[in-house]
Design a protein that fits this description.
Shape of chain A: elongated
Number of helices of chain B: 6
Largest sheet of chain B: 2 strands, parallel
Number of helices of chain A: 21
CATH class of the largest domain in chain A: Alpha Beta
Helix content of chain B: 40-55%
Number of domains of chain B: 2
Distance between the termini of chain A: 67 Å
Structural class of chain B: mainly alpha
Oligomer: heterodimer
Strand content of chain A: 5-15%
Order of helices and strands of chain B: HEEEHHHHH
Helix content of chain A: 40-55%
CATH superfamily of the largest domain in chain A: Response regulator
Number of strands of chain B: 3
Radius of gyration of chain B: 26 Å
Strand order of the largest sheet of chain B: 1-2
Largest interface: A-B, 40 and 30 residues
Radius of gyration of chain A: 30 Å
Shape of chain B: elongated
Number of strands of chain A: 10
Amino acid sequence: MGFLRLFPAAFLLFFAQAATAQDVILMVNMNYSSEELKAAEEMAAARGQRVEMVPPRDLISTAEPMFLKRYTLEAELLRQLSGGQPPTEQMRSRVKVAMAGISRVGNAWNGDPQIVGMMGSSRISDLHQSAQRMYQAEQRNGDIYDQLKRKAIELKGKGEKVDSIIFSSHADGSNLTGETTNRLSSNELTRLKQEQPSLFDSPRHVLLLGCYNMTKPNHRSWRNDLFPKASMIAGFGIKAPSRFDQKSSNFIRQTMGTADRLDREMVLAGKPLDPQYLDGIFKSLNTFTTAKHPGVIDYCYSVTEGQPETFTRNCDVQWRDLYEKKGKMQAYWSLTEPREDPPTVSGGDLRNFYNTLQAACPAEETPSERNDARAAERMRVTMRENVIRLIFWWNVQSNFSTHRQGEIEAMSWRLRSAGVRASIPSLDGSTSRVEFVKSYNAVERELRGKSPTLLADFQQLYGPVFFLRGEDTVANGEKLSVEQTLARNAIPFNWIEGSTVLKHR
Amino acid sequence: MNISILFSIVTLLFTLHATAEETYQVEVDPSVYPKKAFEQKDVKVTNIPARVKRPDALPSRSERESAFSLVPGLDTDIANMDELDRDLLLVRARTKQLKELRKFYPDIEEKKLSILQNVLQKKSGKDTAK
């Protein structure tokens, strides 16, 4: 058993946040293991996520038959060379060299006449052709570094987050290799982290299925340099099981499933879990206890392992992230120049932002916010109220226009009579937020200085859907009616539900 | 002094008194200042009513999770819900009838939803805003 360390509760709460529907498990499946992919897909399905694979998963159907062909030949050659006795390391290495040469140049390879003779020209040619098909496909895709970079950009573009990442490959601890041309060096990983930090900052769970990844100092490097925010890094100390060994795919199921459960337990407990309890849990997993491939897990990083002040820094990071995202949300909620409409189904970026708002550390536990924690918390509350109404903009507008139908018609007539050229769209449940805000501003501009009374009535009527405010508190005993809520330029919360208002007042 | 001058003086005094009453109405936050400290002649002192969270206000994360943790078995039902969905569940449980709540969450046992509503009912009233 490797490292089981604890961390302050609030930090864990951040990591233990429930995964969202847009989250993905990214599998860097450098040896095209269908068994491991299947295990990852099972985990993703249980979490309501999906698996993204690099390289593309359609190559599995080309790769696995080729590997099968190669392993069958290897076994046969070893049997023949050793005369039925256990093959020596020298024999194994001789066969591997031959396989590599034949895969590369086919019948043109003549590095070991005995093996060439044993195989025969047609089998050499067959293996060579399979290997070449694979090689050409991999060349078309570019190297793993480029593919990961593209994938990160693609996911970011869709507003999707990598919730967990699995590296399946051969490894020397820090450099990853596949049995074909797939390579991902330690330097490339570092470069990727700088260029695409989201790939490394968002995963809660990191699985390293290659050999030596969890030996020191490799473990420290994966943890400190690459994935300082993950709540779990799991892999193997020295020798990792083969991808054909059930242990490998069960390792994915057991570690991810257990970490999910512990993350939830920790959230519910609101404090770190007992170290002995954690130790017992991971020891009870049968993929951890084998003598041949003992698992190493690092569930929650300890400050004693070389990262002082991680907790405080991470609260700051969370709030910085919150402010950065808030800036990006301007495209949705700007009251002067909105550019994007709220997504119609999932909430997309807005949902992610809402989750960030809700999951960030308490302001009073965050060094950068501590001086004015109350103001920071007020801002958080206000933004959450505002964002949730924006996410459900399509329902809100529909409920509003049903409730205010009479006044809307009257206002429309008054605006026309006053010679106002701009008009407000119908807000029938399908009107773009961008269009509405622009129209509101246009009407307001025309009315300003022209008709103060009409301007005030216009603002009174449309203000609530323009500002989309919520009201977090009321005086004790006070029960605001819908009218009173609207009079305060706020939107009743239940208007986020579809068809709440069935007839106008 | 004739009667009209006397009437004017009485009216003026009454007006001043009324003005004083309107001018010196003080509302204090009892958690900050004691009401007594402001009590004087002609000064009407009242406490600012405490602010409480509306039932449909979005919960804080800790308040929400602590309510969920009191409902046995709910954690598995909501394991895949994100922050937004969890908040919505809590607000709906606070504001909707059980029958309606069931329609929103057909996969969660009615018993669990009912326990959640009871838990929230017990907690309500303790949510005085800071």
